[in-house]
Amino acid sequence: MGRQLGILAMYWAEGKLEELSFFRRLCIYGRKLGLEVLVFTPDDVDDSKESIHALTYSHSDGKWIRKWSALPPLIYDRCRYRGADNYRKITSFRNKYKNVDYLSRPLANKWTVYEVLSEQEGIRPYLPFTVRYQSLKDLSQMLKKYPIVYMKPKNGTGGRGIVRLQRLGSSQIVWMEGRDPSRRILPQQKIHIRQIPAKLSSWKLEELYLVQQGIPLALKDGRVHDFRMLVQKDGSGEWQVTGCAGRIGPRLSVTSNLHGGGTAVPMEILLRNRFGTEEKVREIKKDAYALGLRVVKQLESKFGALCEAGIDLAIDPKGDIWLLEVNPKPSREVFRRIGETANYRKAHLRPLEYALWKLKRRKPEEETSGMDE
After folding, report:
1. Hey, what CATH topology would domain 110-125+221-357 get?
2. Banded pLDDT at 326 (limits 50, 70, 90)
3. What does the H/E/C string look like for 241-286?
4. Rounded percentage of the chain residues whose pLDDT exceeds 70
5. What single DSSP character describes residue 11?
6. How far apart are CA 292 and CA 290, in angstroms?
7. Is the separation of the CB atoms in 240 and 219 below 8 Å?
8. How far apart are CA 3 and CA 362, in angstroms?
9. In terms of CATH architecture, what is 3-102?
10. 326 Cβ contact list (under 8 Å, min separation 6)
């Protein structure tokens, strides 16, 4: 098979890959498109031969097989950078093979992304006010201004280390809840603002944390919700909204992430239950989709080529849209959970179709010059 796409991944405990079922589907869909998908990690690279000992899924045999291959000319980076060791490995790989073409470039931390998005007039009104945590004073000022604030790590994913603080009247007492850095639910408690730095002393607040205006996310039953939108490039290199779905968190959780036990609901059903009229649902959906496209174009203009992004949105009780977060390596599981099989399939196909479009546009000399001298 002529055309190849490398999937850059990372081993976790016992040599396992985190997204193996996703990679298996990419291998199967890729073969149908005439694209060989090769999964590898920095540990699978033989630098002396500039080759990789990759995994690929054989649909006919129903199993994964290993094969040696030259480093593919195009790479889809799905590495999760958890832990200093993994970060060193991926940074070293990128530095050594700078001339390899990537479908996407890494985004910066959440604070830098917030600053970049704030520069765009068409995005700024949708952003919750956010500051870096530098001292208790920052937290106190935010809680004077907003009845609810969230403390978030700059580099966190999956709801890890997110704390929700709700001011009780005009006092210095707040209701604190959330998840610790290992995603365990923190017991709900009333606490004086002054006690928070000591309570979270091991969390490196000054170094790692942001404080963000809280958007009312609670449904009538008290559970929080938000929306995950998937925006991807298609087989013509154009940005498209693949779909958007609601996520509802489990009881006592301040986040709605599926990994943390959340459930998925079709966007239209969740909006209709809250706002009633079809006209309002259409209006919110249209504005949300337009915002999603503005966001990816702004990020791409600042950070370089992207192929997809997961965008987390909140819709407040008035129907106003808020942009909570951007994830450059999104899951597509939410579409399977709500039974949108066409969107689930499309969410897998689009990176492959975009990769083929890029490969077809490469100059002949590029096909053989993917690596550093």
Report:
1. D-amino Acid Aminotransferase; Chain A, domain 1 (3.30.470)
2. very high
3. EEEEEEEECCCCCCCCCHHHCCEEEEHHHHHHHHHCCHHHHHHHHH
4. 92
5. B
6. 5
7. no
8. 11
9. 3-Layer(aba) Sandwich (3.40)
10. 107, 113, 117, 295, 299, 309, 310, 311, 312
Give the domain ranges of the chain. 3-102, 110-125+221-357, 130-213
Instruction: Count other C-beta atoms under 10 Å from residue 189's C-beta.
Output: 11
- Cα–Cα distance for residue pair 4/138, rounded to 1 Å: 50
With vertex at residue 283, the alpha carbon angle to CA 127 and CA 337, rounded to the nearest 5 degrees, is 80
Please give the pLDDT value at position 117: 98
The strand pairing partners of 364, in sequence order, are none
Distance, C-alpha 271 to centroid of its chain: 23
Helix intervals (H) in the chain: 20-33, 84-96, 110-118, 136-145, 196-199, 205-208, 267-275, 278-303, 333-337, 341-361
pLDDT tens-digit readout, 240-275: 999 999 998 777 566 556 665 678 899 999 999 899
Radius of gyration, alpha carbons of the chain: 22
Q: What amino acid is encoded at 121 in this protein?
A: E
Tokens 């819709």 found at: 315
CA distance 357 to 237: 7
User: Which among 258, 257, 320, 321 has a CA at the least distance from the CA of 292?
Assistant: 321
